[in-house]
Design a protein that fits this description.
With 283 residues, the chain is mainly alpha-helical. It folds into 2 domains: 157 residues, no CATH class; 63 residues, no CATH class. Helices cover 41% and strands 10% of the residues. The protein has 10 helices and 7 strands. A hairpin with a 6-residue loop joins strand 4 and strand 5. The relative contact order is 0.14.
Length: 283
């Protein structure tokens, strides 16, 4: 789970402000940034790279199964820690700048002792633990670039969850979690995934952005011109895509209600308001 104290500012996301959290600086790409990425590596490579940060074991279950790993038994962070170290810095520069994930190694770190407040004295005290109760957690550490001015960079599960939330929210992609019990059920799911993979593995790659961009540019209510889009951040663009859909839905409902051909009494009043809050998939 994400650190309960951490809250994303959607206003800052809308204006493309980078996020710095525990020494990790995250950048929001613009449409123009992704266009340049497409020129260097291809748009499909962008999505492969991004999936490492926003994905979960369900997305990778066929690959994991073929490696002898049950996707039900591995956490999002464990998957991320093993995948991210294969991403070269030029591939992640668009969203993480100079941070080089290939320099990270997986370590096991002892959790700090539990501290409680003594009710009588009001002072903090450490709760004694038996050796068997000492807990450890996996972390990613970059010790190679550590200096006096630049301390080692550490990514634990809480920090990873913030990274995942940040980019899932920006792109409005919240992958489904699908668990399975029983060997037979798991094998059936994997075989279905394998059939789908074999069916589409030779399909020519298509752009995921082009249909959205084309639809928006051909909509009378979209305010950006094609050249202006290059400077628009992804969160703002995805907000515009959803807002246009909400506007069309609300307008259709209003026309139906006023025409008398639709019973609007059972439709929530909020559905008629195109300025209502946009609901993301994680809400």
């Amino acid at each position: 789970m994400t650190d309960s104290k951490f809250k994303l500012s959607e206003l800052q996301l809308f204006f493309g402000e980078p996020l710095e959290y525990n020494g990790i600086k995250m950048y929001q790409p613009t449409i123009g940034d992704i266009l340049e990425y497409d020129k260097k590596f291809g748009e499909s490579e962008f999505w492969r790279m991004l999936n490492v940060f926003i994905g979960n074991p369900t997305m990778y279950r066929l690959m994991l199964w073929d490696l002898g790993i049950d996707w039900n038994e591995i956490s999002d962070f464990e998957l991320f820690a093993n995948l991210v170290r294969n991403l070269e810095q030029p591939m992640t520069e668009i969203i993480f700048g100079d941070l080089d994930f290939t320099k990270f190694e997986i370590y096991t770190k002892q959790l700090p002792p539990t501290i409680q407040i003594n009710e009588k004295t009001g002072e903090e005290e450490i709760i004694p633990s038996k050796p068997a109760m000492i807990l450890y957690k996996p972390v990613l550490l970059d010790e190679e670039t550590e200096t006096e001015l630049e301390p080692e960079v550490e990514i634990d599960e809480d920090i990873y969850n913030v990274i995942a939330l940040y980019y899932r929210t920006i792109f409005n992609i919240f992958p489904k979690v699908e668990k399975a019990k029983g060997k037979t059920t798991k094998k059936w799911i994997i075989e279905e995934d394998r059939m789908n993979y074999n069916l589409h593995k030779n399909d020519s790659s298509t752009s995921m952005f082009l249909p959205l961009i084309s639809s928006c540019l051909n909509h009378s209510g979209f305010k950006y011109k094609k050249k202006e889009l290059k400077n628009v951040g992804i969160y703002e663009f995805m907000d515009s895509v959803q807002r246009l859909q909400i506007y069309e839905q609300s307008t259709a409902l209003l026309k139906g209600a006023y025409s008398g051909f639709m019973d609007s009494s059972k439709i929530p009043a909020e559905q008629f308001n195109f300025m209502r809050e946009i609901s993301h998939n994680n809400k």
